[in-house]
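Internal tracking record. Fields below are filled automatically when a chain is submitted to the structure queue. Please do not edit lines marked as system-generated. If the sequence contains nonstandard residues, flag them in the REMARKS field before resubmitting.
Queue: standard
Priority: normal
Entity type: single polypeptide chain
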Amino acid sequence: MSLTYRVAPGGALSGRIRVPGDKSISHRSLMLGAIAEGTTHVSGFLEGEDTLATMNIFRALGVRIDGPEHGKVAVHGVGLHGLQAPREILDCGNSGTSMRLLCGLLAGQSFDCELTGDDSLRRRPMRRVTDPLAQMGAVIAATEDGRPPLRVTGRSDGLHGIDYRMLIASAQVKSALLLAGLYADGCTCVTEPAPTRDHTERMLAAFGCPVECIDHTVCVNGGGRLTATAIEVPADISSAAFFMVGASIAPGSDIVLEHVGVNPTRTGIIDILRGMGGDLTLLNERTIGGEPVADIRVRHAELRGIEIPEALVPLAIDEFPVLFIAAANARGETILKGAAELRVKESDRIQVMADGLRTLGVHADPTPDGMRIRGGTYHGGMVDSRGDHRIAMAFAMAALRADGTIAISDCANVATSFPGFAELAHTAGLRIGTV
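SYSTEM-GENERATED OUTPUT FOLLOWS
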């Protein structure tokens, strides 16, 4: 389906809004709920295409799932060894999270299965997951260059724990290994070079699985069991990020983003915007279901260019498309290094963002692992999102400061993470329409 955003210039963001539920937590609630004993009740579930792909996969694996209905889901767990062989190829759609985490979970089953996805997902590298899983005894076949489709051979009695040191910080790799570790003989430990989102560790603990976390190392033992629990999914900070940047760059903006997950492994966007001079205040901070949550008030501020600290890169990896828009509106130059991971997301986000920014007249110079952006005025134009949901939404926010209409093509995949984005953004004050 073809979808184009047309966003008229100007305007401001205001009011109180709640963006959809956290995608990472929604995925994991299904995965762990499915292999737990008992019924897991989830509220605030993200009803996006990526998470629905995960839901359909577990239904194909013999798990009864009720919903989603207004964000509520009931997962009737079958226990660690209760999944059934699927009758069809398992389609992950556009979801790299689904495919990479399922590699670990499915490697320990008693049956074989195949994972595929859409054209974009089949171009994404999988060796970063399949190679360390192979060290645990997993058998996963891919294309010659390590891309999907993936053929997973069940090794219900063949996995063993390892002590793995990741070279690149990746929550997906860490989570895949921890899930495989549930089925492995002995202890599985994963050491990160830098902190990444820790939703898997937090949720495993909530399901009653002992998790040991020391410094940057996380360990689980095989042979345990998970017990169903209740999960309340907070609003996704990655989705809130578009409104954080939009309000920061648009004069007259003052918006409150409600019930946002502010897990410290995800708040790089807040730290970076504050470093650029952004005006962000956390209100009503609380902990719900083991996850920190807050309302975030964002007001317009004059941003300045900075060199983004590399320690913050893993904590904001999904937010860089919209942070590049912040940089385009900042005084001076913004420099990003250490973010080569952006080149293997749903698109090459460094190059695609640089192309779009240049189309609008922004000085943007891509580097192998980042970007240099000089802020200033820019005009309207036609930008190709290359089917990348985060790029589409980022350029929509750019129109708040453009001197002409910005049209963004190939936006249908926004529904993978943020169903209803255009409608909610319009309510908040963005002059957005679709064709």
